[in-house]
Protein 1
Amino acid sequence: MTVRAQARVNVAAISRNVATLSAAAPGSAACAVVKADGYGHGAVAAARAALSGGATWIAVVTAREAEQLRAAGLTEPPILVMGALSTEELDIALAARADIVVWTEGMLDAVSARGGGRVHVKLDTGMGRLGTRDPVRATGLVRRAEADPVLELVGAMTHFATADERGDAFFGEQLGRFTAWVGELRAAGVNVIAHAANSAAVLRDPASHFDLVRVGVGIYGLDPFGVDPAAQGLEPALELVSWAAAVKPIAAGESAGYGRRFVASTDGWVATVPVGYGDGWRRGLTNNAQVLIGGRRFPQVGTVSMDNVTVDLGPGTGVSTGDEVVLLGARGGERILAEDVARALGTINYEITCGLLPRVPRILHADGAPV
Ligand SMILES: *Cc1c(COP(=O)(O)O)cnc(C)c1O
């Protein structure tokens, strides 16, 4: 162990997860979503792994994210920038030859005025964020893009608000609105790539797949439904690993950490592990997480500080200074999922990996082999 805490990212797992999701949406192209630095896994590595797993499109949210991928040598695949862009950001996105999402006439005009580009028209079928709510206006935008010689109409899209809430009716309502709009476009002979599905929708309903699926969370082996990725055939691609930097006896009545939130009830041992909220291991995990050492589960105890956490090793311990400590990952039949940590914090798995800060180096490997 050469660094205090590291995120080990298995790019081969990302490739396999893309293949798994693609197999669930046969006949649709796979667009790998690598926004927010690939959900914390590393955007460039995630994009490369996704392409080798069969993705043919990449999606990000910001113009800079598109620029970064192009600069890293991803010159070929179409890159869709899904976010709202200021005029300055639009310039950056177009310079990166990215596809732009539009939902007003002014946005089409702005792309046109900059010499043109590839556009996707977004219908807001109920997410209530970006896109026009009006299918008539959306069709008008499609027509306007088609008629403009410097614009290339590429896509017609929407985004689901509740795809991950199995059994809710709103998903069907959104899907119905989008299906009707796409049906009208097709009937009018418009040639466009229709896309709507995120990872949850891919697994939930084939009727949502259309021509292309935008898969994010699932390609990282995080469960779109927040429960267990293995149930979907998905493999977590990221492990968070640190080490026992100090192993010390603790007497009954002695404490560890700020505020004395852990006081030993019996004589025993405590390990100090150099990872904390300054690495993205959130303070809300105070007395609220477990770790794996030597394939055994131990409670993390006491306050999570900026740079360290403490682990209760119990009365008799085989743990030594230098031993590996796994905060996210599987060892010896035990596993700690991002979903488990998310549940403890009252959040979602997305936020656990996205929340790992730059102080944690991302170490890439392919099933253990260096890349
Ligand atoms: C993030 C995002 C996705 C991917 O969603 P996942 O739930 O991570 O699969 C798809 N489409 C849009 C518009 C997004 O912002």
Protein 2
Amino acid sequence: MSELRVRLRPDIAAIAPYRQGRMAPEDAFKLSSNENPYPPLPAVVEAVASSPINRYPEGSALGLRVRLAEIWGVTPDEVYVGNGSASIIADLVTATSGPGDEVVFAWKSFEAYPGLTASAGATGVRVPTLPDGRHDIPGLIAAVTDRTKLLILCSPNNPTSTVITREEFDTVMASVPRDLLVVLDEAYVEFVTDPNAVNGRDVLPLHPNLIVLRTFSKAYGLAGLRIGYGIAAQYITDALRTVQVPLGITDLAQRAAIASLDHEEELLERVRVISERRDRFRAALLEQGWEVPEAQGNFVWLTIGERNAEVAAYLEANGLVVRANVDGLRITVGEEETIDLLLRSLGNVIAALRSGEPLAG
Ligand SMILES: *Cc1c(COP(=O)(O)O)cnc(C)c1O
């Protein structure tokens, strides 16, 4: 390649590209992307198989929006469908923020937020999470200024798996300007069992400045098809439709989402199995001596510290691919057989961390 370089936006070149959870080799378990371990339901496979893929999709996903509107008690125009909720966050930033504007979010949180904020030329304001992994509510409120155009709340939070309580959410909404758009990113809400957690279904009707985001990627097991949605006032969803890349939501994804809603009970039964597995896994980790934040998503967070990369490599050598952050590991609750494997390996890890010995093979 030539040495010659074209002129890119310096603010973009300064930000690291989004890094996906590591792909796993054939003989390893992939616990790095919070995916659903179950294969798709036969009805979903059937729905996808009959899609006329020589045709463009109905780009606004009208059929799905009508279904979701019934479920949420809103109009179809108040439902916005995107290529996964990650793309909806991109559309939200584009529709609200540009150079000089700020987007406030917790950090650690979803690793896509900084890059998506920078794409619009806006400034991301990262409010450190508390030592227990939870959102710092007073800190987030204090970070909101006249320059803030978007406040993103993530519950359960990726990667710490902690929730925002209803009380905390109410405090935020009562404290920020009523004309500030607040995003409640609920990618994992279906796995929540804590009755004190906020739920977008309950709070959406109370706040005209709120958009609730949901996805079919995690609980519904459609990560490969890229489909999620947001619910908000129509003038907000219209602005999102203005900035959206046209015709991006495939007919396959729309059919699969509708088929998933048709078989929701079966899917939510799987979700209950995973939530129960998560609680069992976390309890066993606490027993081993780990500090694990109260986990409410389909994943748990372990703070490791300096030896994080070594621990991640050790787990991978044992067939367990997890997501390593700077100082901790996010471990997806996947197949049942991974739990014993994880506990055996992590038992060795905690012994090595305590003794300072290296981790053997
Ligand atoms: C996985 C995830 C999303 C979106 O996933 P999509 O596949 O784009 O729908 C959004 N927010 C958080 C916090 C996530 O972890």
